[in-house]
Amino acid sequence: MTAPFSLSVRGGHRSEAVSTVDGSDSTDVAERRHTLTAVEVAAFLRISASTVRRLAARGELPGRRIAGTWRFGRDAIESLIPQR
Q1: Can you tell me the distance from the alpha carbon of 21 to that of 64, in angstroms, rounded to the nearest whole number?
Q2: CATH fold of 35-84, please?
């Protein structure tokens, strides 16, 4: 089971949900994705995206560079957070 989290951008503005072809909204689609971007990981960990990229480059965060951008496995990132 994955822990739900909300994504926000600097300034506290949230993007609006957009309906997809199958009728689900885009926030549901984003929560089901298995791969996260540096910005999404930053929002989840509450750190900056540049810190996420720096930690990944050092090997301190599990991630891969794909076509010049960092990608992170959702399960690997969520496993970094201790369960209560």
Answers
A1: 30
A2: Multidrug-efflux Transporter Regulator; Chain: A; Domain 2 (1.10.1660)
pLDDT tens-place string over residues 10-62: 444 344 444 445 555 555 555 557 999 999 999 999 999 999 999 999 999 99
Query: Using only C-alpha atoms, what is the Rg of the chain?
Result: 13
In contact, 43 and 7? CB cutoff 8 Å: yes
Q: What is the number of residues in the chain?
A: 84
Domain residue spans of the chain: 35-84
Read off the tokens for 13: 């503005």
Say what the pLDDT of residue 81 is: 87
Note the pLDDT of residue 82. 86
Q: Specify the residue for token string 């496995």.
A: 73
Distance CA 36, CA 18 (A): 19
**41 φ, ψ (degrees, to nearest 5):** -65, -40
